[in-house]
Amino acid sequence: MLSYLSTQLEKYKRKKLINLLKSTDPESLLRFSEKNVLATFQRAAIRSPAYSKLLAVKQINPASIKDIKSFIANAPFLDKVNTFQENEILDLCLDGNFNNVKSLLTSSGHSGIFSFGVNTNENLKTSSKSIDFGLNYTFNIDKKKSLLINCLPMGVKVNTSLTIAETSTREDMVWAVIKKFSHLFEQTVLVGEGSFLKKIIEDGADYQGINWKKGCFSLITGEEGIAENYRNYIAHLMGIDLNNPQSPGIIGSSMGVAELDLNIFHETKNTMALRRLAHTNQQFREALFGKGTLVCPMLFVYYPHRTYIEEIPAEFGQNHIVISMLSKQMKIPLLRYKTGDLGKIIPYNKLKSILSSLGLQALMPELKLPLISIFGRGQNVKVGGISLFPEEVKEAIYSDFELASQVTGAFKLIPQDSHINIFIQLRKGKQLNDIVKEKMAVAMRRYSEAPLNIIFYTYNTFPYFMEVDYERKFSYA
After folding, report:
1. Nearest-CA neighbor of 345 among 316, 379, 304?
2. Are β-strands 307-313 and 319-325 bridged in parallel, bridged antiparallel, or unpaired?
3. Using the 8-state DSSP alphabet, how is residue 304 labeled?
4. I need a labelling partner for 281 at 20 to 30 A (CA). Which of 12, 229, 243, 366 fits?
5. Closest to 348 measured CA to CA, from 282, 296, 274, 254
6. Which pLDDT belongs to residue 393?
7. Which residues contact 27 (CB under 8 A, 6 or more apart)?
8. Residues 66-90: b if buried by 16+ CB within 10 A, e if exposed
9. Is 403 exposed, middle or buried (0-12, 13-18, 19+ CB in 10 A)?
10. Cα dihedral value 286, 289, 290, 293, nearest 10
11. Are 82 and 51 in contact, with CB atoms under 8 Å apart?
12. Does residue 14 sit in helix, strand or coil?
């Protein structure tokens, strides 16, 4: 009985929060965020030995940080190096102790430096409520009996109240769970990295007899951004009509950072619709993301009551995204933390202005939340002054369904003399043919003017075969 009442209470709270975010003035949300980041700063300055020491070294008097203007002007930036590499964990923790720690999560180590999420039980409960809120808003989990299959790499937990299967990147386990249990639920949601989920969907249909078009299956991609053409391709395989809001199944995306939270930003049906339009409409794409944009960045909502987000100038005409976590339950307070991601904040009222100017008011999201675009981390190769980004290659690969069906999604960009080599891995059992090679050449010309040499490798002969294990991030360049 107590469990039932607790569940009903959480559903009521989620419904109340949705109504609040529909009605609250966006500027009020921002002011609330600013107020909370100042309180979080003072808490860290007093209770975190490492942060207090950093302020002293920088000769910053915490008492001088009285408003958001002084916070932005004086509070130091944090990153993996000056936080996790240069400090002992206890010094980073509030009150310098390890009390009540429930779980540890490591980052991917992709940068060569590991960072860590150190979570208390209370912190995990807060994270779970946040994840459930996002799942309910997009997937209606309060009304649909739902199974979530966590296909993320080992150790990455999805804190949710849903029935959950933890399979990691074992495709045989994923398929076994789907065959035995998915029919017992109204919907099944798979969470994982995009290229691994591609393998699950393709091989599941080709070799495991799974009919993705029967029942209700959805995906949430993470780890890295997806091409909009990827969404089109996977939807085609799963029988999902992306233009029909009533179509069963959703292909969405979420973004987290191990040391911050698993779910900091996420797509909604509204942001998906906006990105889909931007993908095909150059005028809207450039109004939203900037002149000359060919490839849409990810487009997410974020919650000002959970995070305070800033931008600082970076290369490529982009900005670095800087995140301050506001939860009192954070064992390691992280303020003005540079994740390495490039992006841009799109305030709710700015989006409203853009849509109104183009006669697209019907696409205005109902939640009055700010949006954020994430362009990746700027990873690229250059030749003759022309840069080629992995995001451009991804859009090209998935722009043609036959081409996409032949490859794994893994590729490597290698500059050589006056051109760029693109090494592409074929799926297991697939052989190169002239049609596929020509399709890739044609697709690439839509997205880049760089001189290219496109080379396909069979699954086992791909030079970077051992790097494609889905347990760690693949480096495209």
Report:
1. 304
2. antiparallel
3. T
4. 366
5. 274
6. 98
7. 349
8. eebeebeebbeebbbeebbeebebe
9. buried
10. -70
11. no
12. helix
User: Beta strand 187-193 with 217-222: parallel, antiparallel or unpaired?
Assistant: parallel
Report the DSSP pairing between strands 116-120 and 101-106.
antiparallel
The model's pLDDT over 366-375, given as tens digits with 9 standing for 90+, comes to 999 999 999 9
Amino acid at 423: F
The contacts of residue 91 (CB under 8 Å, 6+ apart) are 48, 49, 50, 53
Element (H, E) at 105: strand 101-106
pLDDT over 70 at 2, yes or no? no
Are 133 and 185 in contact by the 8 Å Cβ rule? The answer is no
Residue 218 CB contacts under 8 Å (≥ 6 apart), including other chains = 139, 187, 188, 189, 190, 249, 250, 251, 252
* Dihedral (CA of 34, 374, 313, 335) sign: positive
Q: Cα 476 vs. chain centroid, distance in angstroms?
A: 17
Q: How many residues does the chain have?
A: 477
The answer to whether residues 420 and 388 touch, using CB atoms and an 8 Å cutoff, is yes
Distance CA 305, CA 31 (A): 10
Of residues 430, 428, 422, 421, the one with CA closest to residue 394: 422
Residue recorded with tokens 């992995």: 390
**What's the pLDDT band for 4 if we cut at 50, 70, 90?**
confident
* DSSP bridge pairs for 94: none
**Rounded distance between C-alpha atoms, residue 116 and residue 103, angstroms:** 10
Q: What is the pLDDT of residues 218-231, one digit of tens each?
A: 999 999 999 999 99
Give the pLDDT of residue 1.
63
Report the DSSP pairing between strands 319-325 and 407-416: unpaired
**What are 407-445's pLDDT values in tens digits?**
999 999 999 989 999 999 999 999 988 899 999 999 999
Q: Alpha-carbon distance 48 to 25, whole Å?
A: 34
What pLDDT digit, counting tens, does each position of 336-360 carry?
999 999 999 999 999 999 999 999 9
CA 426 to chain centre: 26
159-184 pLDDT, tens digit each: 999 999 999 999 999 999 999 999 99
- The Cα–Cα gap between 235 and 243 comes to 11
Distance CA 411, CA 387 (A): 16
Q: Which residue reads 């396909």 in tokens?
A: 456
**What pLDDT is attached to residue 472?**
84
Dihedral (CA of 119, 121, 126, 131) sign: positive
pLDDT value for 323: 98
Contact 237, 211 (CB under 8 A): no
Q: Which residues 6+ apart lie within 8 Å of 128 measured at CB?
A: 159, 160, 161
**pTM given for the model:** 0.96
Helix (H, G, I), strand (E, B) or coil at 230: helix
